[in-house]
TrEMBL record:
It comes from Streptomyces lavenduligriseus. Pfam families: F_bP_aldolase. GO terms for molecular function: fructose-bisphosphate aldolase activity. It is an enzyme of class 4 (lyase). Its EC number is 4.1.2.13. This is Class II fructose-bisphosphate aldolase. Its cofactor is Zn(2+).
Amino acid sequence: PLVPTGELVTRAAAARAAVAAFNVITLEHIEAVIAGAETAGSPVVLQVSENAVKFRYGRLLPLARAAVTAAERAAVPVGLHLDHVQSDDLLRQAPDAGFGSVMYDAARLSYADNLAATRAAADWAHAQGLWIEAELGEIGGKDGRPPLDAHAPGARTDPDRARDFVAGTGVDALAVAIGSAHAMTSRTAVLDHALLTRLSALSVPLVLHGSSGVPDEQLVAAVGEGIAKVNVGTALNVAMTGAIREFLAARPEAVDSRAYLGVGREAMAREVGRIIGVLSRADGG
Ligand code: G3H
Ligand code: ZN
């Protein structure tokens, strides 16, 4: 069934566990995430990013409708989340499109502007009954830009600022910059576990972005240290594209798109199950 994302994250945070949130681009991604979560018997979050909407010719509804329908029929609880929203126009489409939550991303702005824009977004979202996540510090590697120097001052989330930001904006969860970066195709990120432990004193659940680049052991540790939502996108594309590349190399005569999309979908579903399995190792020790 389709459930509010906030419920899944709140329940995970209370149990010192984390819910996995996967970015979906195509119908095959949606099917693979749900199949993987059903096999694992775990709740999951389907995320549609602003970039995915841009890929779909700027239209949210085709993918959103497919995600809502798949979630409603799923055998496990599924949250639907609009991810990395910068456009106010897109933000305002979220409730009617079936989303229970949004991530409003104003992290590119100065601290004061991020705070003001996020507070306005949070006020609007709460009036609509939406759960809202925001970002402080800057998690690198968005929009094809190189990952920021993980040690650059200002790139990491400052704990004192984070306390002010959460109080000043009223957001329900905070995406923290602790050493991960988006779009990594190898698991070589090094998380700042001491910083994460300090941030875990905040009054809201913490979200890890760029989780595709984080080694399994560090993911397990991060959940124990306060991460309650783990965002994964690139790892699904690595699985899908690798499987399709291998299939087509071995079968140059193949033309039916179902053959290779099916192989790609299976590979994604296995990766979803694998990541949920890694996170479950943090669950109750
Ligand atoms: O918001 C989405 C995530 O941060 C995904 O990052 O594609 O590097 O796993 P990733
Ligand atoms: Zn992200």
